[in-house]
Amino acid sequence: MVIAILLMLCRDLGYIIRIRILTDKKLSWLQSLKVIMLWEFTSAITPSAIGGTSLAIIFVNKEGLSVGRSSAVVMATSFLDELYFIIMFPLLFILINPERLFEIGGGLNIYNEFLIFAIVG
Predict the structure, then answer these.
(1) Do the Cβ atoms of 86 and 99 come closer than 8 Å?
(2) Helix (H) or strand (E) holding 52
(3) Most CB atoms within 10 A, among 8, 9, 61, 90?
(4) How far apart (Å, rounded) are the C-alpha atoms in residues 21 and 94?
């Protein structure tokens, strides 16, 4: 449980750094933290059709950026997320044998390349 909490904190810290960089440091660390926490909360409680992304534009706008700039920042974060998956999926097939990737059964050991890939990813 402690490891899961630490990994969530690392993920949120990465999100905070990302939004701060995308806004050219116009948001302070505290403002970035507030935006990310509200964004994560609304993503968790709203239906996926609405999602936190549409409300994130409002959250970034309330922190002092224009609506256009807020929209651009939120769209850039979505683009970067999609780009990660577009790049990592082919790498998954290059680094891991496809037969092994979809293997059912087998033991979970520390030398499993899929486990190593998951940890690094």
Answers:
(1) no
(2) helix 51-62
(3) 61
(4) 31
